[in-house]
Write a structure and sequence with these properties.
Length: about 900
């Protein structure tokens, strides 16, 4: 286990925040780009910050992995006695209150495999500065509360790097000697350094235009490698939809003359909202119907919207410090979710968001990395771009809207921008705007920002026939999380309805109210335990609770099987309808898991099968909703419901349920498949996507049956598909059988040149129950299309295996753990951020059965003891071992 010594990375605390000693008004940057080094000249106009407690504080600039060439203060070259440097900073003790500082540094993008700062990909130059990458470019006050006006001049070889981009507007260009050229950019908006961007290379552009509602003409440009120019149309259409939506929903317009998106194949995350120059992972830009699935098309629409929406929620109003990350991320995810709901099917989008939250965020909240959406401390900020900060953060923003209503939420947003445009602020400022704009007390609500863990709402109902009243008693608890033993009650919006015996909504009237209202209403739960009494309730109702998933909590209500079946068939709230099915499914899976552990029979219950049959037969239901209702929870989600995880029993149970349903509903699935099979040419719209999703769910069940005729269906679909959705679905069904080998080989041969399609090929095998073994994954790492330096490849193969193949990763001989440790250490040398993501595969270790627990512990200890571990991986493994 890692010992505490002087080299042990120390946590940074929210409570230690102090304003910067200096502020920067203006930055002029000149980049001289070349093959074996690049030179960065920076000219900073600074002044002392009157808000800093010490009026004689030194100036300490952040800087990492920089070769310093010269420092000039107010025109005078400083010799080494006038400043100090160490591995992470440059300090000038004697500073005037106003100064011009000129610094020249040399950096090495050509060997930068961290993909942080300035780096190379496919011969081109790209930057990534959030959170703390700018300090790898030049010495600077690399913190979001220092906002400056940037001017950027880029000089490079004309043939090798013909396109030179940065933030803002292009104001000049010219040629120089030695076949070099320059381009100058000016960004009129103040911004923190994390929003800086530069791109240089051989790129082609898809151009379009957009006119904002106030008449501003905006040039839209998507820059990609020339071979990808035919895959940008969907991204462009998504961008225009996003721009219009933000005007209509929030009154927010774009503010520059140009909006540029650049796609790069080597990227740590999904995309980055740099001012006027977004840089995207190719995965979230490039799509053609034959190369990208419906899920990819949806993802692109959402991420394009997300980055565009950041221009207001993130850039115009930014974060004071990185503890406030959810201020921009939670809010922007909420905005992109609302956008997606408006573009497609709102209930389907909502259910998918809930699935992501439960599968990934609930797990995080229950493990060693649990943290509130505003963390109190971190060792490495890159480890806090989490599902908690993003997805739970979005749920917290959604709860404002649920409590205040859409109009109230809009009033809060308007006030937020009115107060804080151009500022770097905190989550409390956002909450204050919501409270003040609506004259609503949100003091207790603040606990959502400081308490980690998933609360449980326990609800009990009591019907009083004589009084015709129904009383719901609601109690809340929240489990202890690392560093937080005791929790206080949260302010929880509980949306609900009451169903009559026919499944229809009953009118709702709380004791003391004059009239009844139909449909859904929102209760404000604030006490540890409290009761709500409904009056004039003619019959004992079935409560439809947590409608539309009104809060990120676990619900505990003792539903009977018949009540669940009623909700599945009739609940007017699509989320609750789906949820009732999931509850029944989880109950039965739990029974199967216990049977598998005891070596018993793995049969299905009749009421479950007939409820599922009824769902399949319901023509009035959106096919996408039917597909979701038939989708089994992930193995990892099932694991999180266990007190002690037995991966083999979980797999056996899940497969028994799938096969059991396939056998019992064979003819229904066949009928659905035939009815939806022929859809004509591919179209990406909500209806077509819904039909394809149900068809492919039916196929996935049929392919479980060990019958040649069923595999032939998959083979035919694979051979005939004109789109990647159908092609991938067919291949997924086939890979579980020996017949899949030929299809996999054909797929690889066809798509060898398409990096994003090859990612799918790697993932399919990594998560397949037949092929997903340590040996196979290791062999695939030798495939020419694989690269340990490329995050998409590592995620597609290694990440998918470690995070999504429960039984494969947890092979009883411990080989998965040894493989994980070796790979984490190898990736850590190249890209610490990626390595730390992989290391998350150990987060459940304490819940495994004893044999595996011991294996995971020794692998973790081996990683922790490794000399030269990055801060990123150190934080994950040390918190696991605490
Ligand atoms: N801020 C980016 C987003 O959510 C994510 C990101 C973080 C990208 C850090 C790169 C590095 O839109
Ligand atoms: Zn974001």
């Amino acid at each position: 286990m890692a010992k505490l010594d002087v080299n042990t990375p120390q946590p940074i605390q929210l409570k230690d925040y102090t304003p910067p000693a200096f502020l920067i008004d203006k930055v002029d940057l000149t980049f001289d780009l070349d093959e074996d080094h690049s030179r960065v000249s920076s000219r900073l106009v600074l002044h002392r910050n009157p808000d800093h407690p010490d009026a004689r504080a030194p100036l300490t600039l952040d800087g990492k992995e920089l070769t310093l060439e010269s420092v000039k203060l107010d025109g005078e070259i400083l010799d080494g006695s006038r400043y100090q440097t160490d591995a992470e900073s440059l300090t000038i003790a004697a500073m005037p209150d106003n100064a011009i500082l000129e610094i020249v540094t040399v950096i090495h993008p050509e060997t930068n495999t961290s993909l942080n700062g300035l780096y190379r990909s496919g011969g081109n130059f790209y930057t990534q500065c959030e959170a703390e990458g700018f300090r790898k470019i030049t010495y600077y006050l690399d913190r979001p509360d220092v906002m400056a006006r940037f001017t950027t001049t880029i000089v490079a070889d004309k043939n090798k790097w013909p396109v030179l981009l940065s933030n803002g507007n292009r104001v000049g260009e010219g040629t120089l000697d030695r076949n070099r050229h320059w381009v100058k950019w000016v960004d009129p908006f103040k911004k923190p350094a994390y929003l800086f961007a530069l791109v240089g290379g051989k790129l082609s552009r898809l151009a379009d235009r957009y006119t904002t509602s106030s008449g501003r003409e905006v040039a839209l440009e998507i820059w990609v490698e020339p071979a990808d120019l035919d895959k940008c149309d969907h991204a462009m259409a998504s961008l225009k939809k996003s721009m219009l939506w933000d005007e209509q929903r929030f009154g927010l317009e774009y503010d520059l003359d140009t909006y540029m998106i650049v796609a790069v194949g080597d990227f740590n995350m999904g995309a980055m909202e740099n001012k006027g120059l977004n840089i995207f992972n190719t995965k979230y830009v490039l799509a053609r119907s034959d190369t990208a699935t419906d899920v990819d098309f949806d993802g692109i629409e959402a991420v394009i919207a997300h980055e565009y929406f950041h221009n207001w929620t993130g850039n115009r109003v930014t974060c004071r410090d990185w503890f406030q990350l959810s201020l921009k991320e939670g809010l922007t995810v909420f905005r992109d979710q609302e956008f997606s709901a408006d573009m497609g099917s709102a209930p389907v989008q909502r259910i998918e968001a809930v699935r992501t939250l439960r599968t990934h965020q609930f797990a995080e909240d229950a493990g060693p990395m649990a943290h509130p959406i505003r963390p109190e401390s971190y060792i490495e900020i890159n480890n806090f771009y989490t599902v908690t900060v993003y997805e739970k953060g979005a749920e917290v923003v959604r709860m404002y809207q649920t409590l205040l209503g859409r109009d109230g939420f809009r009033r809060g947003m308007d006030l937020y921008f009115k107060r804080h445009d151009g500022q770097a602020v905190t989550c409390d400022d956002f909450r204050a705007a919501m409270a003040d704009a609506n004259d609503y007390d949100l003091n207790q609500f603040a606990r959502w920002y400081s308490q980690a863990g998933t609360p449980t709402l326990s609800v009990r109902g009591q019907y009083d026939a004589a009084a015709a009243s129904y009383t719901l008693t609601v109690s809340q608890t929240c489990p202890a999380t690392p560093g937080q033993g005791e929790k206080l009650p949260m302010h929880i919006p509980l949306a609900l309805g009451l169903l009559g015996p026919d499944g229809a909504d009953l009118p709702l009237q709380l004791a003391g109210e004059q009239e009844a209202l139909a449909g859904t209403r929102v209760l404000s739960v604030q006490e540890a335990s409290q009761s709500f009494t409904f009056i004039n309730v003619p019959v004992a109702p079935v409560p439809s609770l947590l409608r539309n998933f009104s809060a990120p909590v676990k619900l505990d209500f003792p539903y009977s099987r018949a009540q669940l079946a009623l909700q599945m068939a009739h609940d007017s709230d699509a989320f609750c309808r789906w949820e009732a099915g999931q509850t029944m499914m989880l109950q039965d899976l739990q029974t199967l898991i216990e049977a598998a552990r005891a070596g018993g029979e793995l049969g299905l219950k009749d009421d479950f099968v007939s409820a599922m049959r009824q769902v399949l037969a319901d023509d009035a239901l959106d096919p996408a909703l039917v597909a979701l209702m038939l989708t089994l929870p992930a193995e990892t989600y099932l694991a999180d419901q266990q007190s002690e995880i037995d991966p083999d029993a979980i797999r056996a149970a899940r497969e028994a349920m799938k096969l059991g349903l396939a056998r019992a509903l064979r003819s229904e699935f066949k009928a659905v498949y035939s009815r939806l099979q022929d859809q004509g040419a591919y179209r990406f719209d909500a209806q077509s996507v819904a039909r394809r999703s149900l068809k492919n769910v039916a196929l996935s069940y049929l392919a479980e049956l060990d019958e040649p005729a069923m595999l032939e269906l998959a083979e035919q679909q694979f051979a005939r598909a004109d789109n990647m959705t159908d092609s991938q679905a067919a291949l997924t069904g086939l890979v579980n059988w020996a017949e899949g080998d030929a299809a996999l080989a054909g797929f690889a041969a066809k798509w060898a040149e398409e990096a994003l399609v090859m990612d799918k090929w790697f993932t399919l095998q990594a998560i397949s129950r037949r092929l997903g073994t340590v040996a196979k994954v290791k062999a695939l790492m030798q495939h020419p299309a694989f690269a340990l330096t490329n995050p998409n490849k590592v995620r597609a193969l290694v990440g998918a295996f470690l995070h999504s193949n429960l039984a494969g990763f947890h092979a009883a001989d411990g080989s998965g753990y040894e493989f994980a440790a070796d790979t984490i250490l190898a990736v850590d040398k190249l890209n610490p951020q990626m390595a730390a993501r992989l290391a998350g595969c150990f987060n459940r270790w304490k819940k495994l059965e004893p044999g595996r627990r011991a294996g995971m512990r020794s692998a973790l200890e081996r990683v922790a003891a490794h000399a030269g571990l990055s801060r990123d991986v150190y934080e994950i493994v040390s918190k696991n071992l605490q």
